[in-house]
């Protein structure tokens, strides 16, 4: 069956308004991002700190509150029954929340303890999540549903009677995932879900994410991280973000083994490889700093740090071209490939 879209972003721009003294600036945190997420996808969204990943997650959630401003483009969420929700149809955050949050798209932020109110027991959290879209649910039914979901993620029944602070980091992260997906949303966005965990616990959380998708509790996952070595263990596709833009998208293997964008190449070389051939090549780092997003460099935003920069790179922005099916890149080294 053809790819069934779940989330479609077309040339999306969202900027923060920032006041410095009496002058107002715009931080171009998401600046012309296009991405399609399909049913079954686990998309890894990777990039250095400050490149706009969390802001892009807010855009995906259609959660635009000041100082963030939606500048333009299209965000569309497609439900299992074919309904389309567009960012432009919503007048307020409350409307977004009551219409799509939890039910069609869920977000697990970076810090799991913040995601769960530490002073509320897991069963009350489950009750509140379910009640937000099923007004007639009872507490005993909510507890039943919560226990079933916790069990699917290898968590014991008694977790429902605990407070989040009584759980270990890994258990808490899994409890957050179970609670966030109680209403079986089509899309789950997880922001750095494993970065504070040890390697063994990381693997358990990655397994839980796969389990959520396998059981159909979610259709698609967007996994946000700065760590390409973690995401490659779970994602079937990777989108690489740099300075407010997606610079490369492709299936995980081709991104890892044949990176096209010099920034992707740098990211891969900057992590310790588990494969012997990778270890032999050694670890390097990307020189320089990511740009200021108030006044990003002209042309390709990576050109001041790029070892292959040509004159054109500092003059004109490269288009995001499809070099082969499912493989897109925005780099002057690859313009004109794939019949573009
Ligand atoms: N409330 C805000 N007001 C102004 N600028 C902001 C605000 N929040 C974020 N930014 C800026 O927007 C840009 C993107 O930030 P964002 O948090 O989306 O990046 P990120 O890739 O998620 O980083 P990290 O991995 O560190 O969470 C950064 O330059 C950041 O300083």
TrEMBL record:
Superkingdom, natural source: Archaea
Coiled-coil annotated residue ranges, if any: none
Keyword flag Nuclease: no
CDD domains named among the record's database cross-references: ABC_NikE_OppD_transporters
PROSITE patterns documented for this protein: ABC_TRANSPORTER_1, ABC_TRANSPORTER_2
Pfam families, sorted: ABC_tran (PF00005), oligo_HPY (PF08352)
Keyword ATP-binding: yes
Domain ABC transporter per the UniProt entry, residue ranges: 7-268
Keyword annotations: ATP-binding, Nucleotide-binding, Transport
GO BP terms in the entry: peptide transport
An MF annotation (GO) of this entry: ATP binding
Record-given protein name: Peptide ABC transporter ATPase
Record organism: Thermococcus guaymasensis DSM 11113
